[in-house]
Design a protein that fits this description.
By secondary structure, the chain is α/β, with parallel strands linked by helices. It has one domain. It is about 40% helix and about 25% strand. The chain contains five helices and seven strands, in the order αααβββαβαβββ. The chain has a seven-stranded mixed sheet with strand order 1-2-3-4-7-6-5, sandwiched between helices.
């Protein structure tokens, strides 16, 4: 018997919150243990967090598995030799099976620095816009703050969006019970996009 769509949607929302809790907990462990370097690449941070997610008891309790740097299969009419190497990759995919269905949650991560406009632009063009264009299924953005203040960094992202005449798509600070530096942006194409900013600096912003 097929599950009611309302039940599926409710479960999917709960699952996404579980994934946000898992990666937020992983960030807390990473920040406490300080086994990272601020000059790391994006994938270095993602692998570290993914490892902490899967090692944590909470992922076992919730039955959720995290994979990093995962390819996204795209349905096309004709698959040609070498197509797999051209598939887009996303930083995190979380998977859970329930009632004979597979649920997935997607997250894309980008490095950020307060005074680096290039990284902020990449956060928009190579991160947010991949969700907005639906190249990636709807999920969450993750920002690895490596220098400066989170507030000013997000203000810089919003300034770039406003320059692009995208004033309605700016990041707005919201309350999350799992992570204090949490934003949401609204997009006509996809609705709400969630943003988690993980401050890896030693500041207390």
């Amino acid at each position: 018997m097929a599950l009611n769509s309302n039940i599926i949607n409710a479960f999917r929302k709960s699952f996404e919150l579980n994934c946000i809790e898992l990666i937020s907990n992983a960030y807390a462990v990473a920040f406490k243990e300080k086994k990272y370097e601020l000059n790391w690449l994006e994938n270095d941070f993602s692998e570290l967090l993914g490892n902490y997610v899967n090692e944590g008891r909470l992922s076992l309790d919730k039955g959720i598995t995290c994979k990093t740097e995962n390819k996204l299969f795209i349905q096309v009419d004709n698959l040609t030799k070498g197509f797999a190497d051209k598939l887009p990759r996303i930083d995190f995919i979380y998977t859970k099976h329930w009632k004979r269905q597979r649920f997935e949650c997607f997250m894309e991560a980008k490095r950020l620095k307060e005074k680096d406009s290039g990284l902020k632009r990449a956060y928009i063009n190579d991160g947010m816009d991949r969700f907005v264009s639906q190249k990636y299924p709807l999920g969450c953005m993750v920002g690895y703050l490596l220098e400066g203040c989170s507030n000013e960094t997000v203000n810089g992202i919003n300034t770039l969006l406003e320059k692009d005449k995208r004033n309605t798509e700016t990041l707005n600070l919201k309350i999350s019970k799992f992570h204090k530096i949490y934003y949401e942006s609204e997009h006509t194409e996809i609705g709400t996009l969630k943003h988690l900013i993980f401050d890896f600096t030693n500041s207390s912003n």
